Amino acid sequence: MASSIRHGFHIDSEELAAQLEEHGYALTPPLLDEKQCDSLIKLYDVAAVFRTRVVMARHNFGRGEYKYFADPIPPIVQQLRERLYVPLAEVANRWAKRLNLNERFPPTLDEFLDFCSSRQQALPTPLMLRYEEGDYNCLHQDLYGEVAFPLQAACVLSQHGRDYEGGEFLLTEQRPRMQTRGEAVTLQRGRFIVFPNRWRPVAGKRGDYRVNVRHGVSRLKSGRRYCLGIIFHNAK
Question: What is the pTM for the complete model shown?
Fold first, then answer.
């Protein structure tokens, strides 16, 4: 399979921060081409690449399934995780400062994963998800222990309108003393959506406050949808 991401890969942390502030999520330029998406989809049936498989219905998570990658993570997934982490760590540290939190995130993924290991979180969390007709993912947060990076990313590897219908990416925000706000996003193949793992800061009249965020996937109306998920903190 393709072992490297696109030449000239660059993500602007300022642009990400601006989109997250305005919309609650950010969209990157295309980072994976068609061949890379196809190669990742083919990996889904290679058992040795993954450490565990989860059937959502068994846990009341929804319908569909997903698999967590085993170490060593495939090179292209590892590169994406490392390269996305750098600008997102800048955003995460700004968020922590805005909310007067003590936690700060180191500039490289290796340093952050060393910190995860010191808290007994050493299992890799990047994953692939597969949905078929009628499948969906309930609203949730991806928390696996004491350490949680506040942002994560996902890329749909299938082509909407050709390979599947439905299956919109869902985000909800619960603001204090307000009703829940929802957003549905149709994702383009090869392009990542960056979104809060559990919360984000929002500017209010009396300063910044924390908004709780959950994410999921709407019901797939037809076809099959594969998705690559990049979570930065490891699990126990």
Answer: 0.95
**Largest Cα–Cα separation, the chain:** 52
Q: Which helix (H) or strand (E) holds 84?
A: helix 75-98
CATH code (residue 182): 2.60.120.620
Q: Using an 8 Å Cβ cutoff, are 56 and 19 in contact?
A: no
Sign of CA dihedral 193, 101, 177, 136: positive
| Mean pLDDT, each 10-residue run in order, the chain (236 residues) | 59 93 96 97 98 98 98 97 97 97 97 98 98 98 97 98 98 88 96 97 91 97 98 98
Element (H, E) at 23: helix 13-23
C-alpha torsion sign, points 233, 61, 196, 87: positive
Element (H, E) at 38: helix 34-43
| First-residue to last-residue Cα distance in the chain | 29
CB atoms within 10 A of CB 197: 20
Q: Is residue 6 part of a domain?
A: no
- Asked whether the beta carbons of 106 and 32 are under 8 A apart, the reply is no
Query: How many domains does the chain fold into?
Result: 1
